[in-house]
Specification:
The complex is a heterotrimer of chains A (358), B (442) and C (297). With 358 residues, chain A is mostly helical. Chain A has one domain: Orthogonal Bundle (ABC transporter involved in vitamin B12 uptake, BtuC). Chain A is built from 14 helices and 4 strands. In chain A, the strands form 2 sheets. Chain A has a two-stranded antiparallel ribbon. In chain A, strands 2-3 form a two-stranded antiparallel sheet. The longest helix of chain A is centred in the C-terminal third of the chain and has 29 residues. Chain A is globular, with a radius of gyration of 21 Å. The relative contact order of chain A is 0.15. In chain B, the strands form 4 sheets. In chain B, strands 5, 6, 7, 8, 9, 12, 13 and 14 form an 8-stranded mixed beta sheet that branches. In chain B, strands 1-2 form a two-stranded parallel ribbon. In chain B, strands 3-4 form a two-stranded parallel sheet. By secondary structure, chain B is an alpha/beta fold. Chain C is mainly alpha-helical and 297 residues long. Chain C has one domain: Orthogonal Bundle (ABC transporter involved in vitamin B12 uptake, BtuC), CATH 1.10.3470. Chain C contains 13 helices and no strands. In chain C, α1 packs across α7. Classes of the chains: A mainly alpha (358), B alpha/beta (442), C mainly alpha (297).
Chain lengths: 358, 442, 297
């Protein structure tokens, strides 16, 4: 009833090819954006901005990046954190060394540098696949962090290899409050997500999917293997790079290279799998799940022990949270191996029939 | 799918409930306990957390708090992870009644991430024995306090110690010293200072990086075997420490010529190395042992009532635990100082405690009153100097416990301070901060 | 020259330690096609359980036996709870499930035994053999040789197990084709449970060897990262590959650190092994002993 596209006729090619062909989708998206841009800034507290929303958005962007590579082009990578590190450190250097450069251009430069690194480490994908490729991309993780630690130029000769992100200023407006940083992050993420959605239904996106589904067949129908795979790595790394820059500028502020540990790569891969492989929406759902669930678990246990006045050893609580988190991941994989995005799809189908299921 | 919905509903309910709780109560002083109880660094995190919280409990039970204001705290697991640390900070900073009094991030990485946030929120970031060394320049970093001693001070104290063992600084000429360091921001902290010292005294310095996590050090120690250094300085963390000690034994390097940084000098670092650790020396800004009135007080007022934090009572009096007590003492004294200035018996805000931290003066007489003579060093800070003490004791592992082998050795502040100011000025320039005016030396 | 030999031998022996961990990965991958990321956590769990029992003044062999039982239990439960519902899922999903399992195992072991590090001594001192160092000035640790011998034995035993026993043949059948194996009457569930139990045993051995070197503590889970380049070099499915791969990685990484490291600032061990393995893969995409069916791109 609510979600029925019957009666929506498309009479031109342009209408048929638009990005969200169903009216309800368009309305929902508008509503979502309205909530994100207008309602949330009005009601959210500082804690929500700086501890939940900003990291959620940044990780959504990184997940989106990895999803382009893993979900659409079928290549596994464990180098996400490294690409993020490249993005963060190169954005810092661009801002530092090019006088008067707008901050958004710095982010773009960070992303482009990450893309370049991504192409280099995408080269093995021309020869190997699957877990061999995944482990090979680990080389990127260690090599990049080592390089950042070793080349003083990258950290502006800071004694300990730590960089302090510069002020974010766009057209004379300084983004220094959590709310403004949130809005900046949201704008960038929304634009890039839209771009990704569009890209994936273009020729490039279809080439990615052809390579994912069967590379030999893709090559036979004339899709250049090398170009497509490397492009996938480049685009994916660009997204990760921008996410890394945002991580440094909008979230942490001052970063050491160790902020981009391997653990982040795994987390982002989790977000892709839990959210749904090959789904833009899934990237957001997955990022939400992995960033927010541990926090809610923690808030939950704090709440329970406060309310019922139970004195539990904190080590026990922390370990229980770890176990629950791992258990939840296994549980979701078993219940819905296709990710949260698949749940949404099922919901949509139900909604289409509701309230008359026959 | 029902189960999922149910789980989600529970989570939502819990989250909603959380925001509703925590009604404001007066006469409390909230200090966040954002430490770590799981993961590779859990021994340090849980020990320090236990010491600090036990000290607060002792103050609450024995004196009824600071002039009647009791300490409260809330634990948050940071996992030694930057992102989580920031989340915990954001969660704790608005806690009633006056927000976070001050915060001990207990991770150099988290400290870096909080420098700006703390300054903006007016919450002092206290990093005792870690964090950004150049934050000791209070003119540039008003809300950051690398108290007691910093990595750079410690490095100079180590060289002083080596010189005293060799028979004077003149004897350092031509000696070989190797720094085995954790390949991270933390491990790179002492490089500049040690290089300066090497130039000054003419010893030969070799820097050997150990990649994280440091559970394999064969090649580093084979290199050491070839260099044949007189002294090895170990700048490690976690598993890297026992592995290094074991590897030293493996090449036959004498352990009593190995000096660990204070994060390489706890029981947890030597016990896993077993008998190989005998004779190993480490620096520390606190000592181990239970024979201090302050620890006895904790036992009497906290553990006797079965309210203590440590499940394993044998850890009371260990290096990490006692370090946590030092954290507690510094926190409590800063609050006391702030109360003296802004009104006794009131809950202090972060801004007021910042004043307290800047005017700390824990003299020897004060220490005696606190029952901590010899336990920690006297501490005097100012707007200009956020470090204070700058002294280090050296202790040696005799196979079962740490034995203090020196008195407080003072760092070479004349060497360190200009470097701190230079680095702070660079930071100020990068960030566009105008340093505050401080009465010089005051 | 003696120094070169010392580095080389030291590297080879360090490589054996990597192989020990890699073996656990290989076993499970061979039999179920699962890249078991939880192997590191299993090493930690096994070593921690064993050392905690020892510290409660248990007899050495009894502690060993009980730990083994625990590991077999974990293996069987993993099969039952995690793997069985995930049959026929893509490998990446199974891989993710094992990462979830990693969290569970890490939390569980620390919850039961605490997070304090322990020392572990097996009665063989980790000191250089005197006659060698006196005669040729070469330092080779007794314990290293012991570890090498243990790995050798383990590999021999596993090879026999795989080649000669009925279960071993069933294992290989399962590895080749799940459905065909089911069709000829091999119980997939039993086989998987057995493999996970054997992997648990290998984890225990690895945990004991690494525990002596590093102390038994959380960081044992990081040993997995040392094993990964060995795996891609040696091939995910090959037991001898894990050993040879370990030797090559160990030797080349130590030689590189000692002879190349000083020119670039040191610490290159962290990535050198991966780069070696990567370069090797470019030439031989299936690894040293990997099965040739891997389709080339």
């Amino acid at each position: 009833m609510l979600y029925r596209e019957a009666g929506q006729f498309r009479s031109t090619y342009a209408e048929d090819m638009q990005i969200f062909p169903i009216r309800q989708d368009r309305i929902a998206l508008m509503l979502l954006l309205a909530v994100g841009f207008v309602v949330v800034p009005m009601v959210a507290t500082q804690y929500w901005f700086s501890a939940l929303l900003i990291p959620f958005l940044i990780f959504s962007l990184a997940t989106l990046g990895l999803n382009i590579l893993t979900g659409y082009a079928g290549q596994i990578s464990l180098g996400t954190a490294a690409f993020m590190a490249v993005g963060a450190f190169m954005a810092y250097n661009a801002q530092l060394r090019i006088p008067g450069i707008p901050i958004l251009a710095s982010f773009a430069i960070g992303g482009l540098c990450a893309a370049a690194v991504g192409i280099v480490f995408g080269l093995p994908s021309l020869r190997i696949k699957g877990f061999y490729l995944a482990v090979a991309t680990l080389a990127c993780q260690f090599l990049v962090l080592w390089t950042i630690n070793r080349v003083p130029w990258l950290t502006n000769h800071s004694a300990s290899g730590v960089i302090a992100a510069q002020k974010i200023e766009i057209l004379g407006y300084t983004f220094d409050t959590p709310a403004s940083k949130y809005l900046l992050t949201l704008s960038i993420v929304a634009l890039m997500a839209l771009a990704a959605k569009n890209l994936m239904r273009s020729e490039t996106g279809r080439a990615f999917m052809a390579v994912r589904d069967m590379d030999v067949a893709a090559e036979v129908i004339g899709i250049p293997m090398m170009k497509t795979k490397l492009l996938a790595f480049a685009i994916s790394s660009f997204y990760c790079g921008v996410a890394g820059a945002l991580y440094a500028y909008c979230y942490l502020g001052t970063v050491e290279p160790e902020a981009f540990v391997l653990d982040i790569s795994f987390r982002v891969l989790f977000m892709v799998i839990i959210g749904g492989v090959g789904s833009i929406l899934g990237s957001f759902l997955g990022a939400g799940f992995i960033t927010l669930v541990p926090i809610f678990l923690n808030l939950g246990t704090t709440f329970i022990s406060d309310r019922f006045d139970i004195e539990i050893s904190h080590a026990l609580v922390s370990n229980m949270e770890l176990i629950t988190f791992g258990g939840l991941i296994i549980f979701f994989l078993i219940v819905e191996p296709n990710g949260l995005a698949r749940l949404w799809q099922i919901a949509k189908e139900k909604l289409r029939l509701w309230p008359f299921p026959h | 799918m029902k189960r999922t919905t149910l789980a989600l509903a529970c989570i939502a309910l819990a989250a909603a409930g959380y925001t509703g709780t925590a009604a404001a109560q007066a006469k409390e002083q909230f200090v966040p306990a954002n430490f770590y109880w799981v993961g590779p660094y859990a021994p340090g995190g849980s020990g320090i957390a236990g010491g600090m919280i036990d000290y607060f409990k002792m103050i609450n039970n024995k004196d009824g708090g600071i002039n009647g204001v009791k300490f409260t705290w809330e634990k948050c697991e940071t996992e030694y992870n930057n992102g989580k640390g920031v989340e915990c900070y954001e969660r704790s900073k608005k806690h009633p009644p006056t927000g976070a009094t001050l915060i001990h991030p207990l991770s150099t990485g988290i400290t870096y991430s909080l420098i700006e946030k703390g300054t903006a929120d007016k919450i002092p970031i206290v990093s005792i024995g870690y964090g950004r060394t150049s934050a000791a320049d209070g003119r540039v970093f008003p809300y950051v306090f690398p108290l007691i001693t910093t990595y750079w001070s410690q490095a100079t104290a180590m060289i002083k110690f080596i010189a005293s063992k060799e028979g004077g600084t003149a004897k350092l000429k031509g000696k070989k010293i190797v720094l085995v360091y954790h390949d991270s921001a933390y491990g790179k902290e002492p490089h500049a200072v040690l290089k300066k010292e090497a130039e000054r005294y003419g010893f030969e310095l070799t820097l050997l990086a150990v990649p994280h996590p440091g559970n394999e050090q064969q090649s580093q120690w084979l290199q050491i075997r070839q260099i044949k250094p007189n002294w090895v300085i170990l700048w490690g963390w976690g598993v890297m420490n026992p592995t290094a000690i074991k590897a030293a034994a493996k090449i036959g390097f004498p352990r009593d010529h190995m000096i660990g940084v204070w994060w390489s000098g706890a029981e947890e670092d030597v016990i896993p190395a077993g008998s190989a650790a005998k004779g190993y020396i480490a620096a520390g800004f606190n000592v181990s042992g239970q024979n201090f009135p302050v620890i006895q007080d904790i036992k009497k007022y906290v553990y006797a009532k079965n309210e203590g934090e440590m499940e394993d009572k044998s850890r009371i009096g260990s290096i990490y635990y006692n370090r946590g007590v030092v954290f507690g003492i510094v926190t409590a004294e800063a609050v006391r100082k702030a109360q003296e200035h802004f009104g006794k018996g009131k809950s202090m805000t972060g801004e007021q405690v910042q004043w307290g931290l800047e005017h700390l003066n824990i003299s020897a007489a004060e220490l005696k009153k606190l029952g901590a003579t010899g336990f920690m060093q006297p501490l005097k800070t100012s707007c200009y100097d956020h470090e204070g003490g700058g002294q280090v004791k050296f202790q040696q592992w005799d196979g079962t416990k740490w034995k203090v082998i020196t008195d407080w050795i003072t760092a070479d502040k004349a060497l360190v301070r200009p470097m701190i100011e230079e680095d702070a000025a660079k930071y100020a320039k990068e960030k566009g901060i105008t340093p505050r005016d401080c009465p010089k030396g005051g | 020259m003696t120094f070169f030999i010392e580095v080389l031998v030291g590297g080879l022996l360090a490589g054996v330690m990597y192989s020990l961990v890699a073996l656990g990965f290989v076993l499970i991958y061979k039999a179920s096609g699962v890249f078991n990321f939880a192997q590191g956590a299993m090493v930690f769990l096994a070593a921690l359980t064993f050392v905690s029992l020892l510290e409660m003044n248990w007899n050495f062999w009894l502690a060993l036996l009980v730990t083994l039982v625990v590991m077999v239990g974990v293996g069987v439960l993993t099969e039952r709870i995690v793997l069985r519902p995930l049959v026929n899922q893509p490998p990446i999903t199974l891989f993710m499930a094992t990462i979830g399992l990693t969290f569970v195992l890490e939390g569980l072991s620390q919850m039961v035994w605490g997070s304090q590090p322990h020392g572990l001594e097996l009665g063989i001192a980790d000191v250089p053999m005197e006659w060698l160092s006196q005669k040729w000035n070469i330092n080779i640790s007794k314990f290293d040789l012991f570890a090498a011998a243990v790995s050798g034995l383990l590999v021999a035993a596993l090879a026999l197990f795989f080649q000669k026993t009925r279960i071993g043949r069933a294992l290989r059948a399962v590895a080749d084709d799940h459905q065909a194996a089911l069709a000829v009457g091999i119980s997939l569930q039993h086989i998987w449970a057995i493999v996970w139990a054997v992997a648990g045993f290998v984890a225990l051995v690895a945990g004991m060897m690494w525990g002596v070197r590093n102390g038994v503590q959380y960081a044992l889970t990081f040993t997995a990262l040392k094993a990964l380049p060995v795996l891609i070099l040696g091939g995910f499915e090959s037991v001898p590959g894990a050993i040879i791969g370990g030797l090559i990685i160990g030797a080349s990484e130590k030689l590189a650190e000692v002879y190349l490291g000083p020119y670039v600032g040191g610490g290159i061990e962290s990535w050198f092994a991966y780069v070696i393995a990567l370069l090797f893969l470019l030439v031989r995409p299936q690894g040293l002993f990997g099965e040739k069916i891997i389709d080339r791109v």
